[in-house]
Amino acid sequence: MADPITSVALLGELGAEQGRLAAEIREIDALIESTRGEVARLQAREEQATAGVAAVRGRSGATADEALAASDELVAVLRRQGAMVAELDALQAKRKLLDRLDAHLAGALRHLGQLAETAVPAGGPPIDETRLLRAVVATQEEERRRIARAVHDGPAQAMANVVLQSEIAERVFAMDADRARQELAALRAMVNRTLQELRGFIFELRPMILDDLGLVPTLRRYIQTIVDKYGVQVDFSSVGRDRRLPSDDEVSVFRLVQDALVERVQKAEAKDLAVAMDWRDEQVEIRVQSDGKVIAGSGDLVSGLSRGERVGLLHGEATQETRPDGRTVLIARVPIVAASRMIT
User: Fold this and answer.
1) Which of 7, 180, 289, 292 could make an SS bond with 268 (beta carbons 3.0 to 4.6 A apart)?
2) How many domains does the chain contain in total?
3) Torsion angle (degrees, nearest 10) of CA 264, 270, 274, 279
């Protein structure tokens, strides 16, 4: 049972956080209302531009330049309208996430209110619930924020553009078939890009091939996505006979390497990296080398855990050093506690 003093302190912190969250919700509501007004204004402009195109088409003696100008104005309005509709969708999605977080905080406040009324039994050590709850809430919120940002900047925006591009092609087709074909070609390319982005997004959330094929094939594919996304050089090697680990261990090792690569590429601005796995009888050694800036290796990572916490979950050990040539080397050793089968 928790220390009531600790619970009361945390109760105050969460209450303050709930107040900040309420202020952010009010700000989001104001932005939603403003964006809705802009969407309505653009819809009126669309009707005017559509009427202008129809007037030019119906007027005898209208020149090609006049028809093109009217068409361009309509296209510009539709593009702006599509961008604002996508922004409105993103704001509404964030509003829903904030509502869920507010509900979580309210539940935590109720729970801590009950804990604050209890005392620690004699001789029983208090549970460090402060750090545990902070870590859970912070990690959940950061993951929600990352997913919302990724969906907004990627698939949501792209799908809004797909709808907009199809509407443009439909409206332009009767007036300018060549222009319509160009818009359709751009639409096809956009759909292909969106599909690739969506696949990459799903892969980062949970690489399904990890369950089917194991660590080495999954890391090879993930490293290729890093190369394609950031334009860096990453060499990968695996020596010894790799084997299947318990599912939780495989996910943890994958996240360990993922965090290390993202940290070195994004924070240290590394351009030349190497990942090596050395499979031994009782442990696997993971080595990540890179150029780039020297940064602390013990802070919070993309996954929300520190490297020490991540390695601790695997009952392993990790060290990081900077060599005289300036390259940073991370070495993690993870015991193989349940190697159920070899990969041949």
Assistant:
1) 292
2) 2
3) -10
